[in-house]
Amino acid sequence: NIMPVIPEVLALGNKMFALAMKLAAPVLVGLLVVQLLSGFLYKVAPQMNIYFIAMPLNLVLGFMIMILSIPVFEKVFNMNLADLHKEMERILTMAKG
Questions:
Q1: Which residues contact 91 (CB under 8 A, 6 or more apart)?
Q2: How far apart are the C-alpha atoms of 25 and 18, rounded to whole Å?
Q3: Is the pLDDT at 87 greater than 90, yes or no?
Q4: Which residues of 59-79 are buried (b: 16+ CB within 10 A; e: fewer)?
Q5: How far apart, in whole angstroms, are the C-alpha atoms of residue 90 and residue 26?
Q6: Are 41 and 50 in contact (CB under 8 A)?
Q7: Three-class SS of the chain
């Protein structure tokens, strides 16, 4: 019967979504700060074209945060990858039997 497997698959999907949020959080927060600061800059100096400043700044800051976060990404990903493998095996054995 496949019915007991459905909640397990949904729980695994929730875990993967939480992992994705943990990995994306530093970049999202950094880019949010840049957007807020560029909004303040636009209010202070409206004659300045903020788009040509904010867009390259977003790219550079996003890549810089991603590069600096690689050791943390690796640690979090490796910790959760082992658990994910065990969960997948458990779900597959549930689905078989």
A1: 5, 8, 9, 12
A2: 10
A3: no
A4: eeebeeeeeebeeeeeeeeee
A5: 32
A6: yes
A7: CCCCHHHHHHHHHHHHHHHHHHHHHHHHHHHHHHHHHHHHHHHHCCCCCCHHHHHHHHHHHHHHHHHHCHHHHHHHHHHHHHHHHHHHHHHHHHHHC
Structure confidence at residue 17 (pLDDT): 93
Count other C-beta atoms under 10 Å from residue 47's C-beta.
Answer: 5
Residue 38 burial by CB count (10 A; 0-12/13-18/19+): exposed, middle or buried?
A: middle
- Report residue 11 as tokens: 């729980």
CA quadruple 17, 18, 19, 20: dihedral sign: positive
Residues 34 and 28: their CA atoms lie apart, in Å, by 10
- Label residue 1 by pLDDT band (50, 70, 90): low
